[in-house]
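[Q] Does anyone have a clean structure-token version of this?
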Amino acid sequence: MGAAMTHRSVFQGGLDRRRFLELGSAAALGALLPSETKAQGAELVVSNWGGDWNERIVKGFENPAFGSSQLRIVHDLAPVPERKAKLLAERRLPRGTVDVTWLSDADAYEMNSQGVLETLDVSRIPSSAHIVEKFRLPYLVPCIYGGVVILYNPAKIPTPPSSFADLWNPKYAGRVGIMDQIYFNYIYAASLANGGTMGDVSKAFPALLDLKKAVQPRLYPSHQTLAAAFQSEEIWISANYSARAVQWEKEGLPIRWSYPKEGAVFISFGAGITKRARNTEAAYQYLEAMLQPKPMGAISVATSYSVATNNAELNPEARKSMEFTTEQIAKLNFVDYPYAAKNDPKWVEWWNKEFKA
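[A] Here you go.
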């Protein structure tokens, strides 16, 4: 495997030969690499979430695309607040330590507004022409998208929940799960369920304090621990990404998902290039390789999110299981990026000092 993958934390992975053969893309994508990258065995530092998210990106895309190339991918893995703080701290350095960073659409907006992300030269990413128009951003290559919905155990809650407000139901006291890392989505859900909007979440904060009193929600540090709580029936209901429900149901967990009448909270994920990147050329090749039809389909299946391009290799059954209906798409709630970027620091502080206390 040579110089394919190294990691700074969390995940140690090897080349998945079966997946490599299925995708058959390594040789073709290796040809996309610049000659100096292939000759020198250059290093590309990719900032990403850890845990099973990174495992899926490695398995679905990076190993098949770069596993046999001379490019050495080094992962810098951490939750997004720590990663954003690092990117901000490195803005004034001649060269940073991160070349490519994976972010949500909202986090990418914030980092771009703070001067962290490069405005992408789409002529260097030919396959960007296949990105669905409404998902395009000048500083991020979107890969997948989904929405925050209601997750529930159908054996314990036979009637599917219809609103984010169902999380406040006293009959679920002690059975509501909250995932700490996506605190902002609970703020949005609380706002929408209580007459607020995505651009004014002031109603969310008293509502979340009421949630604490009404149901004593259980707080979990990661998606994995939330899944384990569903598996053990420690919790019966939560709000989380639709993709997590699809993934966990496939893995045998007692979970279904329900679309809230308020509309799901839209989210997309993708990758951008930092302005202080040391290996910009390889970073562009990474983004182009990611957008190839087989990797995009593989990432979608691996993560259980809908795909952001119109030419991904994805069978109709898999596509149907992950995508929202036309009516559900019409009700999606999109993040107000300037508002979120301005207010997120105080939201984090409130969450830690008031809700988690």
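[Q] Thanks! Anything notable?
[A] The chain is about 40% helix and 15% strand.
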